[in-house]
Amino acid sequence: MKRQNQSSLVEFILLGFSNFPELQSHLFQVFLVIYLVTLLGNAIIIVVISLEQSLHVPMYLFLLNLSVVEVGFSAVIMPEMLVVLSNEKTVITFAGCFSQMYFILLFGGTECFLLGAMAYDRFAAICHPLNYAMIMNRRVFMKLIIFSWISGIIVATVQTTWVFSFPFCGINEINHLSCETPAVLELACADTFLFEIYAFTGTILIIMVPFLLILLSYIRILFAILKMPSTTGRQKAFSTCASHLTSVTLFYGTANMTYLQPKSGYSPETKKVMSLAYSLLTPLLNPLIYSLRNSEMKRALMKLWQRKVDLHTFFN
User: Fold this and answer.
1) What is the helix (H) or strand (E) element at residue 140, kind and residue range?
2) How far apart are the first and last CA of the chain?
3) Which residue has the higher pLDDT, 154 or 275?
4) In sequence order, what are the beta bridge partners of 13?
5) Is-contact 14 88, C-beta < 8 A?
6) Which of these, 221, 253, 209, 26, lies nearest to 128 by C-alpha position?
7) Is there a contact between 27 and 196 (Cβ–Cβ < 8 Å)?
8) Which is nearest to 42 in space by CA: 59, 58, 62, 64?
9) CA 295 from centroid of its chain's CA atoms
């Protein structure tokens, strides 16, 4: 086994699914398609909401920020993951691993708080429709957006700096697809108990607290929907909330299983599969969930497309 002391450690090796080499080539093709669809889907949301003035309301501006997060999240994880899957073992530098972990935590933490803010927005719109404009005014909206991004930056800065302050003097092989905190921490050759206490507490605050607030919001929303006299109104409200709740359950459920588990909780292969759910599926499904089931987004997309066709016709 390869041994290195901290001063000579300049790289890690990402193993990916190297135990199943025949599987890696197939996964590469599937993940490449998912990555391209993810980028395209989220880019369309960003462009449509940015250009269509009628969508410049909190609900869609939250969605725009979420799509920016998903593009960033995918761009940080997927290219390196594809490189890992195309090789038996992939070398990543110490600085590269630090950067990847930092941005995974930044975008992941920001997404936690954005999903919470989006739940609050839906709660205000459905449970207090007459006061919605006052509850979710521009000032409140901006505070929620800024809080979400700053929280993600703080989480990433504290946790990444702390993890890479440990000495890595053992095996430099990370048995994972990316430099996620639990996988990298297993290589530290120092007492990490204090960090694990911090990480567990931080995860409870960053993941579980917003998740519980979202659930409480949706319980209130459910009762409000059931009281609606119009069947059409109930169906529209259920459709909007079901989209958000699907995304929330997928993201929080798999993130909780990854970051709230004990070191020996799951096998390395199981951990890799679980991480794919929130690093791969959530960024892919969000544009599909929020756009294909949203009539206003579809109308705005068709309007922009028609405008493009008209301009093309005019100049030709």
Assistant:
1) helix 138-163
2) 67
3) 154
4) 91, 173
5) no
6) 221
7) no
8) 64
9) 24
Q: Considering only CA atoms, which of 48, 49, 276, 81 is closest in space to residue 179? A: 81
Average pLDDT estimate for 90-109: 92
For residue 211, the model assigns a pLDDT of 81
**How many DSSP H helices and E strands does the chain contain?**
12, 3
Residue 9 predicted with pLDDT over 70: no
Cβ atoms of 206 and 251 closer than 8 Å: no
Angle in degrees, 0-180, between the axes of helices 21-51 and 58-86, rounded to the nearest 10: 160
Confidence band (pLDDT; 50, 70, 90) for 5?
very low
247, 285 contact by CB (below 8 A): yes
| Per-residue pLDDT, 149 | 96
> Which runs of E-coded beta strand occur in the chain?
11-14, 90-93, 173-174
Q: How much is the pTM?
A: 0.85
DSSP class of residue 164?
T
Distance CA 127, CA 227 (A): 10
| 233, 201 Cβ separation under 8 angstroms | no
User: How far is residue 52's CA from residue 157's CA, in Å, rounded to a whole number?
Assistant: 35
The angle formed by the CA atoms of residues 283, 38 and 47, to the nearest 5 degrees, is 100
Distance (Å, whole) CA 279 – CA 36: 14
Question: Is the separation of the CB atoms in 49 and 61 below 8 Å?
Answer: yes
The angle at the Cα of 214, spanning 212 to 220, to the nearest 5 degrees, equals: 105
The set of long-range contacts for 215-224, using a CB threshold of 8 Å and a minimum separation of 24, is 217/119, 217/120, 217/122, 217/123, 218/119, 218/123, 218/245, 220/123, 220/127, 221/122, 221/123, 221/126, 221/127, 224/126, 224/127
CB 159 within 8 A of CB 93: no
> HSE on the CB side for 175, CA within 13 Å?
11
